[in-house]
Design brief:
This is R3H domain-containing protein. One of its GO terms (molecular function) is nucleic acid binding. The chain has four helices and four strands, in the order E-H-E-H-E-E-H-H. Helix 1 links the parallel strand 1 and strand 2.
């Protein structure tokens, strides 16, 4: 998986200032929520420490976003994504032509046959 955008610690403040990190991450996540994108995730690089990732997880949770860490040790990174119900997601993908960089909708063969009749 190759993310389209990386966020590293340099853009969000120092390791010493948790409040600054929280404020900056909330601002970033608010802009992400307000965007009309549904097929891109926020990826926070492995530059963040364990306590910083915990802060980012908390911010994501409070804002109704899904978050998950991947990797181990120094390679651990965080992915934040929008929580979408399946019907809204399918509708949005179909409105974009049925395919996005992240998703593709396949019509079941039985449904496709019935539409041809």
């Amino acid at each position: 998986m190759r993310p389209k955008r990386h966020v590293n610690r340099a853009g969000l403040g120092s390791a010493q200032d948790v409040r600054m990190l929280r404020r900056a991450s909330q601002s970033l996540m608010q802009r992400y929520i307000a965007s009309d994108t549904f097929d891109l995730d926020l990826v926070f690089t492995s530059d963040f420490t364990k306590p910083e990732r915990a802060t980012l997880h908390q911010c994501a949770q409070k804002m109704g976003l899904a978050s998950r860490s991947y990797g181990e040790g120094e390679d651990r990174f965080l992915v934040v994504k929008k929580k979408l119900d399946p019907f809204s997601l399918v509708r949005a993908i179909v409105e974009k032509g049925g395919k996005t960089p992240k998703y593709e909708v396949f019509i079941p063969a039985t449904l496709a046959r019935s539409n041809r009749l």
